[in-house]
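Lab notebook, design round three. We kept the backbone fixed and only want residue identities now. Task for the bench partner: fill in a sequence for the structure below.
Input structure tokens:
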């Protein structure tokens, strides 16, 4: 093994996904980069379109270590997944090794499951420095009709990463198992697997991922706004990818039921994205900036998360909490995960959600406790605390 580095050295942040697209994984990645830089930790980012991070880092003071960004050459894009094609892991290893040596990297943190992540973990192991794998979802989900393509997915992942063996996920249909096995195979090679949620950490341990630590994503700096006046309409906000697993249809069906039962003017739902549809009490805002999402959050009483059995720790929840807003969730597991900061619907369907929304509209006092819980949740996950815990985890890896 090589010489063990300390956490005073740089942290290499690695992601196979394009940083131009701000999905949940990229948002969590960006927040962690900003948190490290704000605490004076040198950060090197190795990811497609890494220069998207070349702007003043939130919370960083002048004179702190500069952020270094490196974008590996792209060879195309994998269709459907919209995943940058960077080549095979073995071809990326020289770039990773040179980056680690040039910038005195003392730990590697990967946020993806493909060739670049595989290369980074393999090189870290050879050089004797800690590697940590942040899993953004172990609950990959695809239509069962795609099951015949599962062997192809497995072969492509094996070809790109060079990984030929390891545990397999077996608790769903073939395509889901193939996708989840991709994550598991990378996780089994890292020194520590980081799961932003407790329930995902338990699933990863059961699958054989090795050392798994429940470690929250970093919450953005607090931007608390006063609770809305209890009068007038109940305002809700839905923010997520427009993908089937996010179940926007459940939110819209619930709003139709609410309008039928108490009228269309007592509850309003803002949807960050989408195009106009004739749904009573719903406004579709089309593409919105992060700043605009914050404004919509301040104007809401709560954020709405309608996924079921898919989400790990959706970043919209952390954003809501940082604004002092609780979340209404359809998934009973997320309701437990977020504890006092979440309000769970009695059933995960539109009927259950509509029932809860009508209760909240009638009694706004039901939101007071969850608002306090949201603020407490966000306070515990601020950048300084996040970085301190990450440094502890890195230091715990013995070589």
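Proposed sequence:
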């Amino acid at each position: 093994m090589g010489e063990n580095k300390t956490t005073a050295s740089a942290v290499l942040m690695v992601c196979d996904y394009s940083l131009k697209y701000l999905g949940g994984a990229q948002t969590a990645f960006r927040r962690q980069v900003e948190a490290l830089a704000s605490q004076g930790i040198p950060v090197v980012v190795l990811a497609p379109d890494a220069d998207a991070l070349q702007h003043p880092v939130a919370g960083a003071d002048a004179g702190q270590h500069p952020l270094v960004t490196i974008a590996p050459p792209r060879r195309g894009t994998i269709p459907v997944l919209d995943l940058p094609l960077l080549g095979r892991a073995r071809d990326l290893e020289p770039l990773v090794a040179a980056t680690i040596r040039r910038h005195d990297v003392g730990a590697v943190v990967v946020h993806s499951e493909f060739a670049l992540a595989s290369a980074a973990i393999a090189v870290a192991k050879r050089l004797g420095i800690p590697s940590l794998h942040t899993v953004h979802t172990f609950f990959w989900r695809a239509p069962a009709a795609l099951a015949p393509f599962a062997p192809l997915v497995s072969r492509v992942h094996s070809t790109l990463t060079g990984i030929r063996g390891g545990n397999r996920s077996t608790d769903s249909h073939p395509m889901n198992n193939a996708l989840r096995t991709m994550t598991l195979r990378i996780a089994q090679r890292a020194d520590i697997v980081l799961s932003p949620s407790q329930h995902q950490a338990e699933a990863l341990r059961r699958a054989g991922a090795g050392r798994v630590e429940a470690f929250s994503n970093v919450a953005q700096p607090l931007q608390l706004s006063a609770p809305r006046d209890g009068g007038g309409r109940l305002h809700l906000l839905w923010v997520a990818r427009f993908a089937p697993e996010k179940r926007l249809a459940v939110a819209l069906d619930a709003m139709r039921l609410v309008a039928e039962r108490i009228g269309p003017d007592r509850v309003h739902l803002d949807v960050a994205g989408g195009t106009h549809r004739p749904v009573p009490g719903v406004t579709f805002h089309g593409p919105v900036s992060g700043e605009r999402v914050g404004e919509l959050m301040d104007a809401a009483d709560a954020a709405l998360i309608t996924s079921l059995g898919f989400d790990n720790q959706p970043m919209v929840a952390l954003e809501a909490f940082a604004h002092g807003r609780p979340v209404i969730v359809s998934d009973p597991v997320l309701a437990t995960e977020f504890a006092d900061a979440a309000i769970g619907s009695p059933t995960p369907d539109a009927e259950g959600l509509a029932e809860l929304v009508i209760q909240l509209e009638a009694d706004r006092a039901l939101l007071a406790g969850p608002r306090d819980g949201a603020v407490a949740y966000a306070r515990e996950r601020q950048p300084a605390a996040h970085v301190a815990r990450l440094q502890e985890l890195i230091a715990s890896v013995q070589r």
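Keep this in mind before ordering anything: Residues 10-218+382-395 form a domain with the Rossmann fold fold (CATH 3.40.50.2000).
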